[in-house]
Amino acid sequence: MKLKKLVLTGAAGRLGSYLREPLSKMCDELLSTDISDDIGTLYPGETFVKADIAKFDEVEPLLEGADMVVHFGAIVDERPFEEMLGPNFVGSYNVWEAGYRHGVRRVVYASSIHAVGMYPKTEFIDTEVPHRPDTFYGLAKCFTEDLGRMYWEKRQMESVHLRILSAAQVTNPRALGSWLSYDDLIQLVTRAIDTPVVGFTIAYGVSNNDRAPVDNARAAFLGYRPKDNAEQFAKEILGEAEPADPMDSGTMCHGGPFASVELGQSAVKGMGIVDDRKKT
Amino acid sequence: MKLKKLVLTGAAGRLGSYLREPLSKMCDELLSTDISDDIGTLYPGETFVKADIAKFDEVEPLLEGADMVVHFGAIVDERPFEEMLGPNFVGSYNVWEAGYRHGVRRVVYASSIHAVGMYPKTEFIDTEVPHRPDTFYGLAKCFTEDLGRMYWEKRQMESVHLRILSAAQVTNPRALGSWLSYDDLIQLVTRAIDTPVVGFTIAYGVSNNDRAPVDNARAAFLGYRPKDNAEQFAKEILGEAEPADPMDSGTMCHGGPFASVELGQSAVKGMGIVDDRKKT
Amino acid sequence: MKLKKLVLTGAAGRLGSYLREPLSKMCDELLSTDISDDIGTLYPGETFVKADIAKFDEVEPLLEGADMVVHFGAIVDERPFEEMLGPNFVGSYNVWEAGYRHGVRRVVYASSIHAVGMYPKTEFIDTEVPHRPDTFYGLAKCFTEDLGRMYWEKRQMESVHLRILSAAQVTNPRALGSWLSYDDLIQLVTRAIDTPVVGFTIAYGVSNNDRAPVDNARAAFLGYRPKDNAEQFAKEILGEAEPADPMDSGTMCHGGPFASVELGQSAVKGMGIVDDRKKT
Amino acid sequence: MKLKKLVLTGAAGRLGSYLREPLSKMCDELLSTDISDDIGTLYPGETFVKADIAKFDEVEPLLEGADMVVHFGAIVDERPFEEMLGPNFVGSYNVWEAGYRHGVRRVVYASSIHAVGMYPKTEFIDTEVPHRPDTFYGLAKCFTEDLGRMYWEKRQMESVHLRILSAAQVTNPRALGSWLSYDDLIQLVTRAIDTPVVGFTIAYGVSNNDRAPVDNARAAFLGYRPKDNAEQFAKEILGEAEPADPMDSGTMCHGGPFASVELGQSAVKGMGIVDDRKKT
Amino acid sequence: MKLKKLVLTGAAGRLGSYLREPLSKMCDELLSTDISDDIGTLYPGETFVKADIAKFDEVEPLLEGADMVVHFGAIVDERPFEEMLGPNFVGSYNVWEAGYRHGVRRVVYASSIHAVGMYPKTEFIDTEVPHRPDTFYGLAKCFTEDLGRMYWEKRQMESVHLRILSAAQVTNPRALGSWLSYDDLIQLVTRAIDTPVVGFTIAYGVSNNDRAPVDNARAAFLGYRPKDNAEQFAKEILGEAEPADPMDSGTMCHGGPFASVELGQSAVKGMGIVDDRKKT
Amino acid sequence: MKLKKLVLTGAAGRLGSYLREPLSKMCDELLSTDISDDIGTLYPGETFVKADIAKFDEVEPLLEGADMVVHFGAIVDERPFEEMLGPNFVGSYNVWEAGYRHGVRRVVYASSIHAVGMYPKTEFIDTEVPHRPDTFYGLAKCFTEDLGRMYWEKRQMESVHLRILSAAQVTNPRALGSWLSYDDLIQLVTRAIDTPVVGFTIAYGVSNNDRAPVDNARAAFLGYRPKDNAEQFAKEILGEAEPADPMDSGTMCHGGPFASVELGQSAVKGMGIVDDRKKT
Description:
The structure is a homohexamer.
Chain A: E1 3-9, H1 14-25, E2 27-34, E3 46-50, H2 56-59, E4 68-71, H3 81-101, E5 106-112, H4 136-155, E6 158-164, H5 173-178, H6 182-194, E7 200-205, H7 234-240, H8 249-252, H9 257-260
Parallel strand pairs in A: 1-2, 1-4, 2-3, 4-5, 5-6, 6-7
Helix pairs in contact in A: 1-6, 3-4
């Protein structure tokens, strides 16, 4: 069941850069798009169109004839609500509504742990717990998940919402549990695409870490079986770690630094995330 | 514990018109606001300021010195997303953010059954079930509930979200279960204000109908005990009713007509809701 | 919404005798049937046909043109499986299958607490707990509920399953909790008929007893609000009661004597149930 | 089923003083005991023996021939662990163990909301939630409930654990939800005695307050239906109340002042509990 | 703990043919039976008796002296109710009742996913969910599970109900999740026999597929750890698959084709199940 | 994050003897203590102080300057309540209270399956099920868990409660599910120490046995991944096992022999536990 056309938003982003190649092999045509045009060399079958996801008129034509959309385009940090409204809220609406008008079958969405980031880690949260966003960033994920559920229930348009924990290098104790390797990310996106029917499904994006703190059981039928395990980094990281304050929501909650940052202020700053974008 | 200042948004609306008088008695100053200025005579202690809830700069100054906000201002029907974005989404953000900046203690919000309208009535839904919006209108309620939860968990600003079922005359079989009388509405808003602490709380707004289909147990500490019962209208209404189609989501789901209407199109049209606004 | 035609099985039975008059008023034609023809005087609009529920060919023609069937015909005690197979198992199949072929919209079925009779009373069982039958009699109720659910999910034929606790005089301590008065039975059957859509619904048939041990919350939308309360008999009955053995499943379990009787042997014998059939 | 002999511990305490008369009417002999002998005039059929519940040898002989024990004897405030160990922990063991040796059928125990006092009121807690004690006082209640469950499961000795919320005058906002009137206390103890079988059962002791924050559903079979409602005091009490701090566990948690007091220090001091002991 | 005598029904069927050899090694005597006598060469210790499971008099004598029965005899496709009544309903009763009379300790039963086939795959169903049969075939499994639970609770006769998903070659996308290999089937039956006590237990029969959609946690104590994984076939099968319709219950529900077939009509036809019976 | 000082109670016990060496490597100073001084050679960095855990004055000074306490000191068998009161109840209080006074961050406690030993194995119990102790031994574990939860919620002192199933040789069928190897014990204690924040956490101590009957999901964030599997002993042990009685709580319940032993009487006697204390 090779797909005719896939659309990837956020293609120039860090995670998007790792998805372009595998996605290009799953379809006849991969249309990559981003607000930036720093896209490098295109893969066979790939085309690129620069577009602002927040503008319906720019997004809408891209989805013509598409089977599915892999929607990773958004601001990927906490910012004031006014800044996020366009790309992270309206952008999601644009993708679903334009997709619906063009008969797109399914959206695979980069949701986030931050939709439920205020749960303490001592709760092993599954994919049906009520939302508890930790930031405006997380609130946009809640909005999009609810939107996706509605488009499924009212319009039979499918979606898979991948609540990514932390797809970055393992540089702190939290990441021992929350790490999602690029290989596992690719597997997860692939399953979200190749599973014949998904309806409305949420799945956590996390590797096979010993300390993975979330429950993917309800998404078991997707067949996502991560291979990587951050425990390989445990000895070094824990050896250097300072004693943690159990009353700090940034340590105790699933959302990590997002759970303790002031609303509207960057939570990524200082996390030491290296831009290891895949170069093409 | 008489309050110094309360702010009521949507004061010129149908429900707002019934709240003005009782709210004016609970505080030294009631500041009523609406996008319309068809407000009639003011009650003792009441002042009115016309404002567009969708504009932060218009909303913000109104909340100075307020103890609580009763937030009922919004479009109260289904419309295209673009039309609802300002008043129903951004408007909620404006109220919470402005309230936070001014030290407002609590927001009492007119949420709606349409945040969970796609559940079938054969599920007795409590206030912790995940969102299942039936319309963009419902999606805005989901957004605001999640926003309110976040402001509680990140900023300790309280809110009570009243998921009103149908606060209108009983003219069809669904309303035998979903009716919220004006007296019960007033009791519910009063409890949401006079309960000493509420944190983040959701409560269904429904009268003591025999056929009430939702579960308020988790909000029991509010002490809301509705008095009216739509069963008084049952004989007449059921006597005239046509056989219903159990496969129609508009009949089977909690959201009623909103659950079967096309997204973006009015669900209220044809429901025969009389504008029985309380005149002052 | 007056119904054209209702069919009542088990019309000559004890409970059936109380249902004939109210049902006859809800429809143009009430077709009563039973394996016995001891039916007395017919009510206006009522006709009677003697038939063996266990024989498809006898049941099938009766349902022609019917809107709904109220299915109370069965052996109402524990007996060897071989004796119950026809009336209590095959009989249910016959009603649903014949109903389906004739376009019947809904079956209202006399199920029983004995479908879940092995739960201890210290569990407040709702209508979604897995089956735990206490007798072959209860097993037939399980079978019929599962059958009804399947006809709903595969064929969109509705049913309401009334798990009656004990519709008989209050003569022992168990009945203080389990009593269903005839008036409340009539209300319950009426709601099961006049509720516009029901899908597949289970409801416990019990009066408003202080000691009622079961949870009807999921069926709340039916609007069943029983009026009678067996507590009026408590003083006399408890005054005479012997100390009970907490290890006896007949005392501790919801099923009462059925929970302790040997499979296949009468559990009604010795319960002192008076045949107070309503005479016409 | 009049009982031969009942034993009441804590008979000279505030709650005990209200129970002596009704208990004396339910049995041939009521043996009242307390560490204090300030017992006043005895009721017909009542005898009194002074005893220290913490001493097995003093308790044990009292239970000879008893059908049931109503165990209310304990320190009823928070104190250092060392002080509570004897009366509140060992005392409970003494009652159950001595009862077992004498063939006592059932213990009715004054447990407390403080066994679960750290739950926030926004959780409507039922009687199966895990323990979350707020004080050593509450911890003793947890200990006794677990002990009672074990004696039921290992030795078939029944018990009912009455988690009393606040059986005192309504003098603050919390009590609007937590009040247990003396009449309702008597009804609750009566049901715990006259229900034929109870196994191991927990029930909350709270009146029919509009704002009652706990769920007695699992104990429904006891038939406890409280009559009093603290809402009669709401207007006056809320009118005088200061704004509350939602981050204060003493306001937000079920345990009230016990939830915020330092372990080992009196939580009752300053609550204004009047000693309105029933005089005989 | 080698068993003296095991009885295997359905021994000439496809699954039975794989069980005969391993079962023959677990006991002194394996009595195999089937309505067909196409049984091939017997294994050491095996005897064969042709019998119709629907006839009590043919089944009953076979169970004399048996420790356990492995009950796989039934029609293994959907057929009209009248055809299934004997072998699939009455047959189960015959096995349990005859077993009870002969003191058989345990029945290991070939139940099926079709007892709960109407659940959507987006629900990760455990072994305690209420029944939702998809066919008369599934309804017979529900009946037998309830029967087995009753024989355990009333008569202390144990049973394990193996809800087999699809024990056939992997030829379609559904089977990537539902496949049960013959080796894993044998392991599962072995555990159901060798576990010292089982009471009443349900376990899903599925291999260690990446996409296995059901939850065996409650049966964990059996120690069933499947080894095979259908993912080895994924690439080829998904490559050839047509896009699926998410609104088709045959695709979306656990029951697969059984969930969409008309009641009473073969669901196996066209599934391409090869008769790879093990030849002896 | 090497710790400065760890305290190990019960250091001369069977499990303690295996913990001393690994613990000594995790900190600058390991202070081992026991009521027995049969401690053998000390490890580098280890000191030993003989003390009676039941005496506050002996325990208190040991905890000065400690980061964490690993609390394994207790009677490890069932005994009369009076004998257990000191070491198993008061001893726990002493550790927590002394720890609190000295600013100890965390207690890692040897809890036990016997806190929930009366659950049948057919329930896959997680770490949030209510207590169901099987012995006074188990009751002390319940007491300590509740105590630990209170110190966390009232005083922000962390604890991890390891509900050990059976850390002894595999000599009977129950141990095929309940075995905890010494290596896995060490891993579990290590995780309980090196996880940055734990709040109040319960985890089952069991190896990666095929037949492990308990659910550690809620403690997933600890990253405990046991390596050993008792299934290696299954063939031999099951081959020799006698048929078991499913009505015997000692066979059917998680607590094993503790679930059937008379309260106060040794349950370990006759279990064939070899004292394979690690010699130093």
